[in-house]
Known about the structure:
Layout: H1 6-20, H2 22-31, H3 41-44, E1 50-51, H4 52-61, E2 76-82, E3 86-91, H5 100-106, E4 114-117, H6 126-136, E5 140-143, H7 149-159, E6 163-167, H8 168-180, E7 193-197, H9 203-214, E8 217-219, E9 221-224, E10 228-232, E11 240-242, E12 246-251, E13 265-271, E14 281-287, E15 289-292, E16 298-301, E17 306-307, E18 312-314, E19 317-319, H10 321-330, E20 334-342, E21 349-356, H11 362-377, E22 383-386, E23 399-402
Parallel strand pairs: 1-14, 4-5, 4-6, 6-7, 7-8, 20-23, 21-22
Antiparallel strand pairs: 2-3, 9-10, 10-11, 11-16, 12-13, 13-14, 14-17, 15-16, 18-19, 20-21
Helix pairs in contact: 1-2, 5-6, 7-8, 10-11
Amino acid sequence: MKSQSIFARLRESQADAYKRAPAIREIFDSAGVRPEDLRTAKDLSRLPVFKKEKLLDRQKENPPFGGFLAAQDEDVTRIFVSPGPINEPQLIGENDGLGFARAFAAAGVGRGDRVLNTWSYHLVPAGLLLDDGLRTVGASVIPAGVGGSEMQAKLIMDVGVTCICASTAFFVTLAETLEGLGHDLPGAWKVKSALLGGEFGDWQGKRRRLEERYGIRTFSVYATADFGVIGFENGGSVGYEIHEDRIVQICDPVTGVPLPVGEPGEIVVTTLRPGWPLIRFGTGDVAFATALTEEGTVHRIGMLQGRAGQAVKAREIFIYPRQIDELAIASPGLVRAQAVISRPGHREEITLRLVLAPDASREAVFAWVHSRFRELTRLKADHLELVAEGEIPADAPFVVDRKDP
């Protein structure tokens, strides 16, 4: 029997939400759309993108859930409180960690694994959602939470941990702590895999180096407090496969219009999760689609590019911090880069400020940068400017907007 289409599922969940959640009803009514109208991706795009800041405002006006809860109060089993503060409900029957079970299964984590979970169990959803997902796939969980690196490092050896869930930095701290205690890794431990939190810069390269150094396999998910898992690594490709209970569009951060495959924009998510039915919700995160579903929604996205508010528009195309970071990482002889967008006349101009390594060839770097920048952004740089390393500090923004107001 053919499975129900994603838009049939969406119409069903939003019809119920329209009746039960005043905020959802207002979104539809203000756009002149009804839940039964949602038959294609184009229909969904008739609704405005709902920004997280608006959710915060609505919850202040109408606590605790801002009119978005489409369930009975007694169906709420947990209330998470994320920075903002924003309240997120977990409902009866949501036992898979809001998609984390799917992510762990794709990574091969399950029965027989002993997993050290170092994410916070305090107020925010991270620790408990990972915990739920791990127990759903049959793994044994050590609910460590944050802090106490030496104690947690000893637990890895004493309990026979096979998988670690941690930020990349804390994973490194744990490994180095064990080495400092005299353990010869990787031979001395049983760790086979690690779910690592993402970082900007050469994160994929860092993961490969950690895998080689410590004899492990790393994996990652794209998740938010509002939705749980949105995408997870699957099949060895770089980027994230979208969870089957989420509808993702990559949209222009200003207009909300969906963008074509390969063009970076804001990740806009609609969930098929009953009870907390956020629709066309702007995450503020930026990525590009690498593949679409037959129904025109995003099937896979690349790695995150940054935050929508950090992007600067030049000649109608957004330039994102990660693109400039990747430019510096990929270009031989280039230490650091910064894009400055100005408008000295009627045309916006792009100046790339570059810090070269001492032995680098100026001509070779310039040729590479011109080509690579165009590949990354589809824009041509107008000027390349060599600067001393101190003129672009390590904490300087990658993209600077110097256009006149």
